[in-house]
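Hi P.,

Sorry for the delay on this. The queue was packed all week, but I finally got your sequence through. Input first:
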Amino acid sequence: MLTGLLMALAVLLDLLLGEPRRAHPLVAFGRMADGLERWMNRGERRQLRGLLAWLLAVVPLTLLAWALASLPQIGWLLSVLLLYLAIGLRSLGEHAQPVALALRAGDLSQARRRVSYMVSRQTAELDATAVAAATTESVLENGSDAVFAALFWFAVLGAPGVVLYRLANTLDAMWGYRNERFQRFGWAAARLDDALNWLPARLVALTYGLLGNTCQAWSCWRRQAPQWDSPNAGPVMAAGAGALNVRLGGAAIYHGELHERPLLGAGRPAAADDIDRALRLVRQGVWLWLVVALVIGVVWHA
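Then the structure:
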């Protein structure tokens, strides 16, 4: 019961305040991780060095979160604050809705500029349909990474769990590239993030399906997700696209190279309204998870 209430409080804080505009702890963590990478990503045994760097970056702060959450009287409040700092539900809308507004206004250049803040693909030559698809994909995937997975690990392990997950996810975003610099050093960050996201991603895919076109979501998940290069993004985006009755995926340019990605979902091409529908799907899913957490807490303590 207490865990569900703490989760609800953190989500409400996020909706009321959004992400901190100044001095976000993850910014400081990112600077520390950059320095750690420059120090350790050299010489021989870079795979081992990458794992050691991950442990040095994540374990002490996870233990600190455990200590803070264990404090009498204020431990519950600190747990709420740590979860609040780890989720980005309001931020997801603040990034995605300006894209939808620009598309509706016919301002394609503005829509391209705003979606470039959300995705790593090249956006300068995207048409309106491709911009809408890219934004919808980002909402579905980041809803899983930035919101649902944080809630999941808080429900399972409390404040230490959500700190462990958020730091691991941040390191994957920083070190998990398949290029010359990070191919060996970043393997641990990439694999550990995949492991931490494996179960939450499938619960998110199930959630999207339950709240949308269930049969189509399940069909797209089963048929299309195995073709995607990410073991966790595939189920999330395939099920989400199927639930929304929209087509996503397809070719995209990343860092100057064309990637022929599989198609996801079914139905009509993406449009501005689908960005709002994807945001609504994520928000409804969050409220569903909170209700389930509260019900489980009541039953557990009955």
